[in-house]
Specification:
This protein has helices at residues 3-12, 18-22, 53-57, 64-70, 94-108, 116-139, 143-170, 176-191, 195-207, 247-254, 256-265, 268-279, 288-307, 312-335, 352-358, 370-373, 379-384, 393-406, 416-434, 445-450; strands spanning 15-16, 25-26, 29-34, 37-40, 83-87, 235-236, 241-242, 362-364, 413-415. By secondary structure, it is α/β, with parallel strands linked by helices. A hairpin with a 4-residue loop joins strand 6 (235-236) and strand 7 (241-242). The radius of gyration is 23 Å and the shape is globular.
Amino acid sequence: MTDSSSEKLHAKWPKISTQELRTHNNVDDLWLSIQGKVYDVTKWVNTHPGGDLPLLNLAGQDVTDAFIAYHPGSAWKYLDQFMIGVHEDYEVSEISKDYRRLLGDLKKAGLFKRPKYVYGLIGLLMVAMLVMSVVGVLFYEGFWTHVACGVLMGAVWTQSGWIGHDSGHCGLVGNKRIDRIIQLVAGNGLTGISIAWWKRNHNAHHIACNSLEFDPDLQYIPLFAVSSRFFCSLYSYFYDRKMSFDGVARVLVCYQHWTFYPVMAIARINLFGQSIVLLLSKKKIPDRAKEIVGLVAFWIWFPLLISCMPTWSERSAFVLSSFMVTGVQHVQFCLNHFSSSVYVGRPCSKNWFESQTKGTLDISCSPWLDWFHGGLQHQVEHHLFPRLPRHNLRKIAPFVKPLCLKYQLPYTMVTFWEANLMTIRTLRAAALEAQDMSKPVPKNLLWEALNTHG
């Protein structure tokens, strides 16, 4: 914007200070600032394609960096209808200038173009594995044969998860209707997990990366606590409830470094439950009926497939092996954040670049293993540029690392095994603090029975 046009803009619209902007921070009165313009998006909260949580969590703030990170250029045309004034003391930090400059360079280089052929190949691979799994169950016998079929089914679900992740951020083929069909089929119908649930959860995670109160990907009380701050029974603004650290939670957290992998092996059960709970809730869900139909389809074909096996031992082995394969993916989701810096409080969009780099880490691996990590191996880059297709994340790492070093921000990259060790150390450290009986919690008979001496 030129100086003359900026002066005309300031003359036409009311001037709104940062202090006043901060007072409009709730669902009934929600203002945001983007590039020096203030918008009243109160009426937009319930129809925002990314859900209400990103707007609510950043309400009353300058959200320029978050906006340009998550929205295509076509989104700007929708803002004018909400404009109510200019941000009087709007400032851009040096790190934000560098971030926006890098984002512009990446767009000019064409790195945000969708790799349609990649998803076509992944789709063919998924179909092949799905057919092999189903054929193995229907036409072949033997315990270990059906275990192998379960492994194939788990691999299908894993790749479907990566596709769902990508489709939610940047789309797959560029056509919203086709992308939506792919989401419902590959997500709800094939895996039994609601894409609406994933979007709501994942968008909140990105906006509030590693906030103990706002990031759902850290809120696993009573099973896990990545920080002793959870011992104060923090409030979850995602689940809208208190995360009570009672006697039961203390018992479970005390041994969380031992239970982490077993729980991850069956963590899919939680996703099934979360999907159903959301779709049956009163929350506004786009295409709720289609989402429900997709889940119903899954809960018809999957139990029928299981019933085709002759014994309960084979059925159980098939289900458990499929869950354990996807359990690796659940572990991957945790590795990037569990051992990174955490904080308490509302996310601050003004420190967008800093919060995204501090709250995550990269996994060092060979390029041929990128399919295994599904883009999570370059999680720092993904959090900074969430709309960038995963096959280009490795290409931009050489540009992101120097920027982190320039502003003395962490750029942590470790191997897959080192990330596992760091995660277990984090869980163990919190577990040892939970075992400290000098920090009492409400009495619980189970806790007392397990910790009685003499």
